[in-house]
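Page 47, continued from p. 46.
Same chain as before, 241 aa.
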Amino acid sequence: MKFLLITALSALSLAPCNQAKQAPLNKNERIVFLGDSITAAGPRPGGYITLSAAAIAKAYPDLNIELIGAGIGGHKVPDCEKRLDKDVLQKKPTIVFIYIGINDVWHWTHPRVVARGKKGTTPEAFENGLRDMIKKINSVGARVILCTPTVIGEKSDGTNPDDQRLDEYADISRMVAKETGSQLLDFRKGFITYLKEHNPKNANKGILTSDSVHMNSAGNQLLAKLVLEALQVPASSETGQ
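Result:
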């Protein structure tokens, strides 16, 4: 099965803020993606992990690099902390992408979640949880690529209801990446840049997401492009599986 990356993405300059510890891939890397439902869908056909794996296999067929999805729908930072050992550390990773934050923000306002008396994650718990996970991942010799959350609503003028809180949590991720010496992958910056160019009607969904949060085909392709840039994988217009 083959997936064609959108031509427009190749032309866009969406280089994320990859800072400390960016390094090329080595032989036998085991790359684990820790996250929520967006990452749970990542290993499916057309998902961003599947697309990334195909591009890496094409670029480095002899390196035996494995990509492992560790996403669970609805999860927040505290949930990821609880399952870090089982779902990440026991996989013996060399690189871990932490892509979390949507539910930590969304669950403050999501009607069904609020109706059940549940809440999002406080900024303090979000920051402390990220720091705790990074420390534990680094302690087993793996490096972290910390991702900012993407979008809750695709309006490109900053008027999505959760934009202010989402920006606050993205800033926390940026700060934690800097202070822990982790590589930052600024998904939020990349998505906003794309939406400002490709969402002229200021739609709430349908450009990169199917429902304002979860990725459609274009969203998965953009995530994969940014992941590959973070891993220094040569750009390619086509990936195959």
